[in-house]
Amino acid sequence: MATTKVIGSKPSDCFQFQDPNTWICMTELVSDVVVEVGEMSFHLHKFPLISRSGTLQKLINESTGDDDNKPSTVRLDDIPGGPEAFELAARFCYDVRMELNAVNVVPLRCAAEHLQMTEDYGEGNLVEQAESFLRDVLGSWNDAVRALQACDAVLPHAEDLHIVSRCINSLVSKACADPTLFGWPMLEYYTAKSLEETVIWNGISTAGKPRSPGADWWYKQALSFRLPVYKRLITTMRSRGMSPENIAGSLMHYARRHLSGLSRHSGYSDGSRGGASGTTTVLSDNDQRVLLEEVVALLPAEKGVATTRFLLGLLRTATILHAGAACRDALERRAGNQMEEAALEDLLIPNTGYSAETLYDVDCVQRMLEQFMMASTSAFAASPEITDEGQLVDAPSVELMPVTTVAKLVDGYLAEVGTDTNLKLSKFQTIAALVPDYARAIDDGLYRAIDIYLKAHPWLTDSEREHLCRLMNCQKLSLEACTHAAQNERLPLRVMVQVLFFEQLRLRTTVAGWFFVSDNADQGSSSDNCVLSRRSGELDFAAVSEETDEEGFTARHDELSSAMSAEEIRQRVSELEEECSSMRQEIHRLGKPKSALSQLFQKLGLGKRSSSRQRKQQTPQLPPGSSDKRRRSLDLGC
């Protein structure tokens, strides 16, 4: 509830408007002085004014002429608070009833100081009365917020009287206090607020125990402050030991409220209207640029206190508003340090430069990626060694999660920007190469990005295509990606052959493993009490107890289930052989292949001199009892 105070004993109807710009004191005596404040004229009397105000006493004595019948005229254009504050001061001089509140006490206190209404001109003068009520106002959070807002209209008088600093200190002391401690200064305010939000249904109140306040309970009230006042508030809170997370949370709320581009991009909306927060006016581009730079400077340096989405939103807005280079560099560095939390849509920052060639700011993303890799170097320095083949030795998966997430993010980003015909090949290769090979479990995402780039840039030479395709590892493509790559006419011929070669090796290994599982399943069906053991290169069986545990049964069931896909694998092998044969015919039609390709074809089993006798020698001898179906599958080259 707002704090108010009534002073004066006479009825308030003594002061009346004669016209919109004239105030008259309705008494039996004729007015003998006219005080002009701006466009407003106050017809008053000398004695009540000079008995309370030293300034008015001096001005009235100086303006008195020889004609005593003509009212004296005094001008007070520089009084703080203007006509409204002087009206309250005049009412006090006449002892007319008036009400003080948190809004009018600030200009009234400044006006009283300007008019020299001190104890030298009467006991209990206006300076003392306003100062006493101001101390009561600072004891309440909402009243202190209103008083601080009222200081904007009477600066720098409020600064000279230390009203601004006193309001800020009062708010900071309440915001920094621990809500869990006994005697929390905001307990009464928060309890009253909870009661106001009580839901009444069917005449019965649903209010219970007031909910405990969160750390962000003061964010909305701080939104209404102008940037200089808000900056002083945040700086004072930091000096008082407020947590970086709490300060960053308030800064994010303040930026989303006042930066129109940031609020639209992040979907932020504040439904509060009136009260302490009020209605936000739209700032100009220059004011928004200044506000953005100040918010970035005020953000705590600790990592993670501000979300990556918020930082990238600030970076996007800074690019649109043409903020300073230092501001953009700071945002790029902070966002790069926690890039694993970014979303793809947040990285698509439009390129607003006049000489920009690409649609999106690719250089900005490259710098953030470099910052992330540099920050991650120390984390991976202590991790286990990585072999030349890209295999990680005894590395915990937790340490790979950030860089793996960023790798997927970069692959998606390259697929989005790859459609831009103005994106240079060197820039695409640089960004893709920044991600280490071990960060990608499979290269399907990178293959998709390369394919999109090749489709958008059909004028690339064969040499450029081959150089671009070296970014991906054909051994790390999934079966679906290999199937697509084998039929992709945009890929260079050498890459297509490599894809077919590694896919055939994978299928050979898979089918060989299926036969091994099938043998185990056949032998296991004859006796449930035998286990497979390998001795001196031969398969022997050893008797085990009749009690088979549940885990062993489950493992055998999984092996049998994996064997069910053998028919699909055999069908894929046949299709792969046909594709290889057609490619061989096409290559020989164009010309005799080079020695390297000839050796590769011989490894694939596609040479012309592959006779039935050689195939027979290469076919492994199957144990007796094996089915013809399995023999035919081995003849396919598996």
Topology at a glance:
Blueprint: E1 5-7, E2 15-19, E3 22-25, E4 33-37, E5 40-44, H1 46-50, H2 54-63, E6 72-75, H3 82-93, E7 98-100, H4 105-114, H5 126-137, H6 141-150, H7 157-160, H8 163-175, H9 187-196, E8 200-201, E9 204-205, H10 219-222, H11 227-239, H12 244-258, H13 260-266, H14 285-298, H15 308-321, H16 325-337, H17 344-347, H18 362-381, H19 397-417, H20 425-434, H21 444-456, H22 462-469, H23 479-486, H24 493-526, E10 530-535, E11 538-543, H25 550-562, H26 566-590, H27 595-604, H28 612-618, H29 628-635
Parallel strand pairs: 3-5, 4-6
Antiparallel strand pairs: 1-7, 2-3, 4-5, 8-9, 10-11
Helix pairs in contact: 3-4, 4-5, 6-8, 8-11, 12-13, 12-14, 13-15, 14-15, 15-16, 16-18, 18-20, 19-21, 23-24, 24-25, 24-26
Can you give a write-up of this model?
The protein is 54% helix and 7% strand. Strands 2-3-5-4-6 form a five-stranded mixed β-sheet. It has a two-stranded antiparallel sheet with strand order 1-7. It has 638 residues and is of the alpha+beta class. The chain folds into four domains: 188 residues, Potassium Channel Kv1.1, Chain A, CATH 3.30.710; 85 residues, no CATH class; 154 residues; 141 residues, no CATH class.
Number of strands: 11
Structural class: alpha+beta
Instruction: Please give the count of helices.
Output: 29
CATH class of the largest domain: Alpha Beta
Give the fraction of residues assigned to helices.
40-55%
Please summarize the sheet with the most strands. Answer: 5 strands, mixed
Low-confidence stretches: 194-202, 205-210, 271-279, 381-399, 525-564, 592-597, 606-638
| The CATH topology of the largest domain | Potassium Channel Kv1.1, Chain A
Question: Reading side by side through the largest sheet, how are the strands ordered?
Answer: 2-3-5-4-6
Multimerization state: single chain
Could you tell me the radius of gyration in angstroms? 41 Å
